[in-house]
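Pair request: fold both.
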Amino acid sequence: MLTPQQVIDRYYLEHRCMLLEIGAFLDRYNAATEAAGHHADNTHKLDLLREAFQQLQGPAPSEGHAASLLQLFAKV
């Protein structure tokens, strides 16, 4: 098993990249809404992503973050 520091050192860059991709996705959506002058008709998926961000900011649920997110995304 890895130590807490090893987990950070091993996976930090990979997950930083994932967060940058999410930021780019949100930038593309914002640019599209600005160009169109309105939001998408159905923002359910975007709302789920925002809810996921909020869940990740809090303490880990008893079932763990991944399981909690899987349940959230099952709503799509």
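--- second member of the pair ---
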Amino acid sequence: MAEALQRERAISTNDLGGPALRGFFNIAKQWELSEAEQMAILGLKSRSTLHSWKAGNVSKISRDTLERISYVLGIFKSINILLPIRERANAWMRKPNKAPLFNGQTALDRMTSGNVSDLYVVRQYLDAQRG
């Protein structure tokens, strides 16, 4: 038991970076996100960092980036539960939404604002829709 706890504690953000980014880039491909959209969602300022990460050169990513990716994974999961047909789920991301949270914007507009809080509220909205 103690050994398992030590292994669990040994997992760091460095260990999660590669798998998290691979998951993110797979979702980005399905959603057909531009580089600018990917950078905004990840909170990146440097295009070279994005290219480096896409090439698998991940030495370290911040907790902020992991948090952002976590929200994207949750959004992806929720939208695919709500809309199990992939094309409809992917289209929802770019479809104007009349819900007060979106005020006519798309989910992607909200998610690419650059604010991690916008990723959070989109995730919460979808989780609430799931019930």
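Observation on the second member. The chain has one domain: 2-130.
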